[in-house]
Amino acid sequence: MLQNIKYYSTNLQAEKVSFREALLKGLAPDRGLYMPDTIPLVSSEELQAFKDHEYYEIAYKVLRKFLHQEVPDHDLLNIARDAYDFHVPLENVYERKYIMRLDHGPTASFKDFAARMMGRLMQYFLRKENRNLLILTATSGDTGSAIANAFYGLRNIKAVVLFPETEVTERQRKQMTTLHKNIKIISVKGKFDDCQALVKRAFADPELNHLRLSSANSINIGRLLPQSVYYIYAYSKLNNGKPDDKIIFSVPSGNFGDLMGGLIAMKAGLPVKRFVVSTNANDEVPVYWQTGTYNTIIPSVNCISSAMNVGHPSNMARIVALYGGVMDENGVMVTEPDIEKMRAEMFAVSIDDKATKETIRTAYERFNLLLEPHGAVGWAGLMKDFEVNQPDAGQDQLSVSLETAHPAKFPEEIRGVIGIEPELPESLKYLDEKTEKFDSIENDYHVFKNYLKDNY
Ligand SMILES: *Cc1c(COP(=O)(O)O)cnc(C)c1O
Predict the structure, then answer these.
(1) How far apart are CA 293 and CA 289, in angstroms?
(2) CA 195, CA 161: separation in Å to the nearest integer?
């Protein structure tokens, strides 16, 4: 039986809404983030049955629990099949340690999983109601291309993507700026956090109400829920059928949307032993774990795992909510969460650039494992967990580290460290032949606001 799930705001000052409303609004009216008020269960029988399912079937079966028939089953199944038409390889490294490659989608980053599902769900509701939306999103690199690609050519939706001028790679930029049509790309003279602040302010600006703005950042619940599916997928494919077989996931984290997906999967009953929360030098979360004091890092530190250069992750409010606390949109802890429980369920570790490069090198030399910087942060975090928490963990410990982007998206780093040229996936091959088009603005809200008014 399906539970009736509503979505509440992490600031607790707004009414609960349906999935449809949470999806189309993005941010709650009190500036909080939407969360399901109940997490539906995935039973161990279901998990075993998923062993023989395709990825899209698992996505359909998991997501329908959260949508409570707001999208009829056959429509949802079609959306899932259409969104997930690519492989999700689980690559064995040694013993029962795996890399899950989430980089086989059209923009070669894990953000395709979320963006493609969210775009299609939005289109489903908008077409039914004959309405339009303007999506605003800030990107540190991969979100923008995934969103632009996922929304490209969809009906009833236009999208504006802001990126920090100097913080995305050329390839990431081209993945966005060569699309055109219903997609506009803006380069901002600032950092990712500045882009995100501009977007957040536009949402809260009553003078822009007529534009029907919505968000596609990981603050949107429609992006978050699909990110719980691959954790369930990995476990269902790799578990040994014994009830005590628990899994460790290492999640390279920036804005913590990916990790939130995993935490939701765990609360839905997935037998997770622990999450390794792997950040780069933006270590506000590992420091919080250690000290119990949360301080944002502004401006954020520039690391080679550039999509994780986030000094104030917006999903922190959701993680805090999941553990009984309240954090407002400025990062102020209004009510303390159960930090002991957080520490027990998550091991947080910061990996700097030097260690990241070292990991790219040793993973390649020891295991013939090709990692790009984000995946290397994840793998290094997992190795750290073995060292610190389980020095004598046997070969039986099932562990999966997430590779969130394709190595060919970061050729400079890979070339520099191990001297090889990662092969381009099909989706990235023709970028250089296409024409780029984007606008540039100062990091100034009034300039951004006028841009929106003039263009829409
Ligand atoms: C966005 C991104 C991350 C971080 O994911 P969050 O959900 O923001 O924590 C990690 N790796 C890559 C390649 C990304 O694009």
Answers:
(1) 8
(2) 9
Residue 161: both structure tokens together: 């993507």
Q: How far is the CA of 253 from the centre of ligand 1 (A)?
A: 6
Task: Judge if the beta carbon of residue 372 lies within 6 A of ligand 1.
Answer: no
The CATH code of the domain at 88-109+224-418 is 3.40.50.1100
Q: What is the pLDDT of residues 307-328, one digit of tens each?
A: 899 898 989 999 999 999 999 9
Determine whether the shortest distance from the Cβ of 399 to ligand 1 is under 6 A.
no
| 112 contacts 146 by C-beta, under 8 angstroms | yes
Residue 193 C-alpha to ligand 1 middle, in angstroms? 14
Kindly report whether the global pTM for this prediction surpasses the value 0.90. yes
DSSP SS3 for 134: strand
Query: What is the whole-number distance in angstroms between the Cα of residue 305 and the centre of ligand 1?
Result: 9
Spans of all domains in the chain: 88-109+224-418
Q: Which of 258, 283, 305, 316 to mutate to test the pocket of ligand 1 (most atoms within 8 A of CB)?
A: 258
What's the pLDDT tens digit per position in 90-149?
A: 999 999 999 999 999 999 999 999 999 999 999 999 999 999 999 999 987 778 899 999
Between β-strands 97-101 and 90-94, what pairing exists: parallel, antiparallel or unpaired?
antiparallel
Residue pair 160/97 in contact by the 8 Å Cβ criterion: no
Q: Take atom 14 of ligand 1 and give the residue whose Cα is closest.
A: 307
- Alpha-carbon distance of 417 to 276, in angstroms, equals 25
